[in-house]
Amino acid sequence: MLLAVFFFFITLGNVHTEIYNIERFANATETIRSPITIENEQETQRKTRETVQSVEDRFNISEEITEERLSYTNEVFEAISKLEEENPNPEENNEDATRVPLTSQEKVQRLKQILSDEITEELSDSVLSSLVNMPQAQREKGKEVLLEALKATFETGVRTESLASARSNAKEIIAYSSLNEDITKVLSELANFAVVENSIYDAESTSEARKNAASSVEPVMIRAGEVIVREGQTITNEVYEEMKLVGLLNNERNIYPIIGLGFLVILLSCFVAYEMNWVTKKFHADKRKIASIVLISVIVVSLMKIVSLYTTQSNQLFFVVPVATGVLLIKQLIHERSAIVLSVIYATLGSIIFNYQIPGSLNIEAGIYFLLSQLAAIIFLMNVKDRLAILKAGAGMSIVNIVTLLSFVFLSFEKYAIGDIFIQTAYGIGAAFLSAVLTIGLLPFFETVLGILSDIKLLQLSSPNQPLLKKLLTEAPGTYHHSIMVANLSETACEAIGANGLLARVGAYYHDMGKTVRPHYFIENQLAIKNPHDVISPKQSAEIIISHPYDGAEMLQKYRIPKEIIDIASQHHGTTLLKYFYYKEKDKNKDVKESDYRYPGPKPQTKEAAIICICDSVEAAVRSLKEPTEEKIEEIVASIIRDRMTDGQLDESPLTLQDLNLVQRTICDTLKGIFHSRIQYPMKEAK
């Protein structure tokens, strides 16, 4: 719940738009950008209207009208030719000179009888008379010129509004011919008759063209991040309407991004809660590890938020964010799976935080970069032996960061300068090594303040130079050797069932630290000395033996050893019975209480403590064998595990029967390897 509230308020500014109290025709006090992408419907309609109005009317040229007017023209000249054939000139044809030729008026009347009514109604007698009296050669030449002028005029189409200009164009073509003025005048009159409208308005084509034009108009969009008005510019009516459209003048639009953010934060927090629950059940984690998840999440998200305040679209500083710090810490302090889950959550939050305060948008580039960088950190942080492993992981991260950045460059349509590429590459390298350095710096804080045990801390505790281990080696060397053997067995068994092998090994190193208080009372340290238990009562011996787990726990606590190791030391005997001293006392005193010869506990609470409890007894028992064989080893291991189960020592540990079966086989295999048969080398005989 705390994380949900934190995530919500730290990302609220990225989805909540600022509201401006501004008036028309005032000057903008700052550059205002659109917070959303939306269509300006009013501007789209205006643009569509202008586009439709610009579409010209569509006309179809009627071939029928064209052919009709040309046929009328041909008819006039053909009728005149036919009339001349019927009434030839006697002088020209050498016929009877006494025949009286037709007068001009008679020819016109005769011509009107054979011409179509449309022609006779529109052509005057003077035009027909001029054509009839025109020499045949000139008439034929005039016919050719007239038909060419008419065809050229009709081809371009003649509309009602252009009829006068079409007739004028035809007349100009005739006027520029080589014919004399009298003939061109007659032909112009004839062209005036022949040229009519042949281009007819097509309503259907015009409507279709306007529809196509309207559909081709792209919607006028106001893009998220687009500048609506710059600082100092006047808030015109158009600008004011755009600000109103994108929701910069009222809070009405702000509620929806907030609701969406709330849903997303709840979803992400549910994933975190599920992972916390899994960690608690899987590793019996306490509040310290849960607190570390919360604290690491706060640190990582806060780092992203701080950098986002200085990030612009031209200066992409999110490439330098050490976002991998969180997963590096979580992998070491908790578990690799938790690191992977939280890497996805941090990447998602990063895509919101670096959206340049544009509600409704996510910076996918930042999200992908953060995710790949974190996954690289998880993968490259392997075989942690010291803090140098974190720096090695940083080197691997830097390679992945560089490749990711270059892929963004090559996928982009924009052209990047070489200098920009080098700068972004430097950002990627810087982010990787900043993550490594911050991890190294923060790790001791979590180890010390929250008391969380990391692999690096365990490796430090396993060093032979550790003061307590030096004390154990010098004061109780037998116990030291015993602890090393128990550590080998415990680590192998834990790794076989998926428990923390490193924790088991280090816990085994320190589990018998209490024996350094009275080292000679423990048989492994009794080298060439008399057993002190032979001269004291069984009850006193039991009290000395029983006290060593708790003396060790107290000593470990004094040296500020992590709680997990202290728990192993205090739990590794559980509430088992000191059978040897119990039965020794029982031989003398029948009323002896069994509880006086049992360890007070607690019983092992974790898999690691339970396995050390088993391996501790197994190692001591096998070491006591004079001739260990595979059969004897298997029998002893099985009997000890069976005894621990029947005595209820494993009841409070999370070990299952399947785990115990696998532990038994693993311990047997390890011991067989240690106590394998050796060749008996022959002794050299003395001469």
TrEMBL record:
PROSITE patterns: HD. It holds the Pfam family 7TMR-HDED. It comes from the Bacteria. Residues 479-621 form the HD domain. Keywords: Membrane, Transmembrane, Transmembrane helix. The keyword Membrane applies. InterPro entries: HD/PDEase_dom, HD_domain, HDIG_dom, Metal-dep_PHydrolase_7TM_extra, Metal-dep_PHydrolase_7TM_intra, PgpH_phosphodiesterase. The keyword Transmembrane helix applies. The chain crosses the membrane at residues 255-278, 290-310, 316-334, 339-358, 364-382, 389-413, 425-453. NCBIfam families: HDIG. This is HD family phosphohydrolase. It comes from Oceanobacillus jordanicus. The lineage of its organism: Bacteria, Bacillati, Bacillota, Bacilli, Bacillales.
